[in-house]
Amino acid sequence: MCGICFIASFQGSSENIQKEKNEIICDLLQQRGPDQCGEKLLNISDQVVALCYGCVLWLQGSKLTPQPVQDINGNVLLWNGDILDGHQIPVGQSDTSFISDQLINKDKSEICKFLGEIYGPWSIIYYQKHTNRLYFGRDVLGRHSLVWKLPVSIKEKESDVLSSEKTSDIFMVSSLCERNRDVEEVPALGLFYIDFTSITIDEFEIHLIPWSHLEEETFKELSYVSVNKDEKLTSRITRSLNMKLPEEDTLEFLKQLPNSLDGSNCNVFYEILRDDIDIVLKTLTNAVKRRVAACPPRCRQCTSSISSCNHSRIAVLFSGGLDSGMIALLLDQCLPPGEPVDLLNVAFPQKIQTLTQKKQKGRKKPENKDNLQEDENSKTGLLVNYEVPDRISGRHCWHQIQDLCKERSWNFVEIDVTSCELSEKRISVIQHLIAPLGSVLDDSIGCALWFAGRGKGECNGLPYESPARVLLCGMGADEQLGGYSRHRVKFGTGGWPALLDEIQMEVSRIHTRNLGRDNRILSHHGRAPRFPFLDEDVVSTLNQIPIWRKTILSLPRGVGEKVLLRTAAAHLGLTTAAGLPKRAIQFGSRIAKMENSKEKGNDACQRL
User: Fold this and answer.
1) Catalytic residue among 2, 5, 52, 473, which?
2) CB atoms within 10 A of CB 156
3) Residue 353 · residue 344 · CB < 8 Å
4) pLDDT in tens, 466-490
5) What are residue 52's DSSP bridge partners?
6) Whole-number CA gyration radius for the chain
7) pLDDT band for position 320 (50/70/90)?
8) What ranges in 52-162 are assigned the alpha helix state H?
9) Do residues 128 and 135 make contact, with C-beta atoms less than 8 angstroms apart?
10) 74 within 8 A of 62, measured Cβ to Cβ
11) Which residues pair with 147 in a beta bridge?
12) Per-residue pLDDT at 258
């Protein structure tokens, strides 16, 4: 994972650029890329000076490739991504240096073709010297973060409001930016470019080469962007969802299915779904394998070591639910025997009681450290309970994975977050990573992910901090497999047609969801978050499977939604996770219970 940034000033001075860099992005970018930082000053024209700044987390190649990368023609590349497939990278070469070599003599259409063929998440900033153009954008699903700060002139045109007090001449594209800055997320709509040959601060125009599947109405809100309708980017994803509805005989058959996956019922579902399960398991396993195969042979704390590393290079964001449980189970097939894996499980305090109240009730403090504990940051003698739903399900699933995969050490990392540390880190760090978003839901999920991704807690009763470079996450399964409660509501009111329309909308708008936020949050700890369920082949495979073979919402909760994945998990022996209903991290970790109970998820969060 890397932190990348391009800052241009239209006053021909580098002072404003350095001030912008030092004040709003420097420390944040260094956290994303702790292994190396570098910068390159570009005199683009008499009026425009720009700075390219990059911080690198070493993940590919036999050695680290410093950024920014400048080739022999003066082109400058800033790359935050993973080429997991689609291009054959020579052994030992990093994807960053490979891209720089490949783009050196390419024109606009060739650049689009090259990027469209990539399997894997990415964001890119690329200055091409001979055309004096800056290209930038995100992958088709928006899995990596990129934000921009536009010159005031664009915002004035957009709002038809002029102000003599607005003097900003800065244009910035960056992986992230501090809160309280006039920044927005770069939409994952295609490849943007700016032609600096004739551009001025007053006539600032952004061009867009869109992804081929997007409709024109998608760009209506980008009134300040000129959309190129003659050129397109084509992704590796088979975008069209199978919209076939079940026929009458199929509907009658579905009514005969068992109401649980227990015991022999699992075999009933497996025999029906076997073909699709086999295909999905093979595709998902390959997706996991892609995301760990390119990881360096040493963990973060052994980067400079010449000896072998016996620590965990890979961690899983682990609630013990269906999605994270399946990823952990399939991961066992993708790593060398005996290599340890960290399972990161986060919990926030619940059921607070005072010591006095506890004594008055005549109860003794349980010896089980997972129950009531003293809050170390509290001066009031509070007792807190970290036995939240995700801790309980996580521990059960961990035990089952240990039984199924006995040759591997599975480090169950219990991450208990005190209320004091939550408040402190939210203000000092997390609010900037959530930005430019700011709802109550963004706060709850962002805080839970930040502490989980930090990986600092206890393992087997001892203090432990994960040294993993790569963090596997289960995001993306619910949108594709009908796992949300809103899918059940749609099915209840409109049947299969309504459910299909809802899932089609869910899949088509994944690029607009919160993957950029999650990337900013999880990357802050110097590890790369990767999402196997959002692999190009996985998305394409799931798109092609008929809806009634993915989710059967006439069946009870915890059975019907994501029935394809549940049956696969139960068949492989992961019976604990297979029967758990969907539980979002903010509820499973109990962070949502810590704040104002009258808040709604879409409300602006006053704590940020």
Assistant:
1) 2
2) 14
3) no
4) 999 999 999 999 999 999 999 999 9
5) 6, 40
6) 25
7) very high
8) 95-103, 108-116, 152-159
9) yes
10) no
11) 174, 185
12) 94
Say which residues have a Cβ less than 8 Å from residue 504's Cβ, sequence separation at least 6. 241, 243
Distance CA 342, CA 329 (A): 12
CATH 3.40.50.620 domain position(s) in the chain: 284-300+311-348+387-475+515-538+562-593
Nearest to 549 by CA among 285, 282, 276, 326: 276
* Strands of 69-70's sheet in order across: 69-70, 76-81, 122-128, 133-138, 190-195, 206-210, 225-227
pLDDT at 310: 87
Q: Which fold has domain 284-300+311-348+387-475+515-538+562-593?
A: Rossmann fold (3.40.50)
- Both tokens of 322, joined, read 């269906």
Q: How far apart are CA 445 and CA 460, in angstroms?
A: 27
For CATH 3.60.20.10, the residue range(s) in the chain are 2-227
Mean pLDDT throughout 196-201? 83
Query: From the DSSP assignment, how many helices (H) and strands (E) are in the chain?
Result: 20, 23
49-56/184-185 β-pairing: unpaired
- DSSP characters over 473-506: --TTHHHHHT-SHHHHHHHHHHHHHHHHHHHHHH
Query: Which residue do the tokens 């022996």 mark?
Result: 573
The alpha-helical segments, DSSP class H, found in 184-333 are 248-254, 265-293, 322-331
- pLDDT at 276 (0 to 100): 97
Q: Which of 507, 551, 585, 12 is nearest to 347 (CA)?
A: 585
The amino acid present at 131, given as its one-letter code, is: T
Cβ(81)–Cβ(1) below 8 Å: no
Say how many CA atoms lie within 13 Å of 151 toward its Cβ: 22
Tokens of 301: 């704390």
To 5 degrees, how large is the angle CA 367–CA 372–CA 374?
Answer: 100
Give the whole-angstrom CA distance, residue 398 versus residue 576.
10
- For residues 365 and 372, is the Cβ–Cβ distance under 8 A? yes
For residue 421, the tally of other CB atoms under 10 A from its CB is 14
Record the pTM: 0.92
Cα(551)–Cα(577) distance, integer angstroms: 16
Please state the φ and ψ torsions of residue 414, each to the nearest 5 degrees. Answer: -90, 110
Distance spanning both ends of the chain, measured CA to CA: 26
pLDDT tens digits for 238-252? 768 999 999 999 999
Give me the sign of the Cα torsion angle 540, 544, 550, 553: positive
Of 46, 45, 52, 42, the closest CA to residue 2 belongs to 52
Known catalytic membership, residue 52: no
**Which CATH entry fits the domain spanning 2-227: 3.40.190.10, 3.60.20.10, 3.20.20.70, 3.90.1580.10?**
3.60.20.10
Closest CA to 136 of 45, 203, 225: 225
